[in-house]
Give the backbone structure.
Amino acid sequence: MSTLVIVESHFSNTWSIGEAIAGALPDATLLRVDNAPKRIDPSVELLILGAPTHAFTLSSSASRTSALERKTAGAQAARRGGFHASSIGLREWIAEASIPATTKVLAFDTCVAGAGTLFGQAAKKAVARLVANGVNAQYGSTFWVTGADQLRAEETERAAAWARGLTAEE
Ligand SMILES: Cc1cc2nc3c(=O)[nH]c(=O)nc-3n(C[C@H](O)[C@H](O)[C@H](O)COP(=O)(O)O)c2cc1C
């Protein structure tokens, strides 16, 4: 199954999950959202979209500016490590994307564990936008970070297991 994984990330957490997912699938390509094509080729059978939750939804220009100014341990570590934050968000990519009806789309996000997802989360907002655009999209999964914006240790293995489960479903 040909898979494309497209990820928005500012402190590397969602990117690390995308790497784990793409690494667990036999024929997967991982792209940053700001380098991803807007027109998805019909050969892509599974499209997996990942984004961090910002203010209970997908990032906006304002929240991405807040991310650049964030002083948490995770944000500072990503900057020290030279991680290059996404210059656009998944919201903007979706607005311009052309996705074949034959491509199955799953969205995942990262959220702060314990803050809960009661008020909203990026993946579900992404799915709502995609479905409104006529895309065959479903919520995939959520992966947890700490309140200091650091990916929880077990989450990359959980992401890989989730991805392996997707191929088992086929
Ligand atoms: C501006 C801003 C707003 C955020 N709002 C939320 C939120 O509403 N809920 C939540 O669970 N996490 C929130 N977070 C935390 C991020 O979702 C979390 O750090 C995420 O893992 C970042 O992923 P990234 O490293 O791929 O950018 C917010 C982070 C930023 C910078």
